[in-house]
Amino acid sequence: MDVRRSGDRFRGGDPATGDSVGIETLHAFSFGRFYDPDNLRFGPILACNEERLAPGAGFDEHPHSHTEIVTWVVEGELTHRDSASHATVVRPGDVQHLSSAGGVRHVERNDGDTPLTFVQMWLAPLEAGGEPAYSHVAGIADSTPYALPAAGAMLHVRRMSDGERTAVPDATGVYVHVVRGRVRLGGEELGAGDSARITESKGLEISAVEPAEVLLWELASV
Predict the structure, then answer these.
(1) pTM exceeds 0.85 for this model
(2) Which residues contact 53 (CB under 8 A, 6 or more apart)?
(3) Fewer Cβ neighbours under 10 Å: the N or C end of the chain?
């Protein structure tokens, strides 16, 4: 198990370096101008970015291709529009998935009057190309994982009360991201923004030290 701390993430959002005003980004993997050859991916996971957008801030229209993009809103509301005519407001508890396939353009903005925080995860597809696709699941339940067969992955959401325990999927690989609260995993305590990369997990449990929300990616390969 490889634990990565929130404070060690690459940090973006400085207007002096060309980043948009009102945006702060924390990268768990090499991304953009932040390059670490030893931290390029974990299995199909290419990025796990914590994005913080002030009211009125956002990412203007930009392209993507050959990437499965999954978004989890922590607080606030995310406005999404894309070149395939999808226009959605994504709220906490929703899962948004954009399969960019052969190519798509989209806009992501905080059109509300309160701060927006979301976690965006990029996964490499098993096969390149195809037509773009979009899905939005409102209010996903803990008991309903979100399957992403295009990347050989499945997303599990866990909202845990103080002292509650939950099993880590027995899988070739598991990526754990703590959204909020504190949990204990394999002898390590993880807080908000911390993550763990697990290979060949067997019989592991997560226990909540305090009320917590955790995202777990079950991966077919690493």
Answers:
(1) yes
(2) 22, 23, 76, 109, 110, 115, 116, 117
(3) N
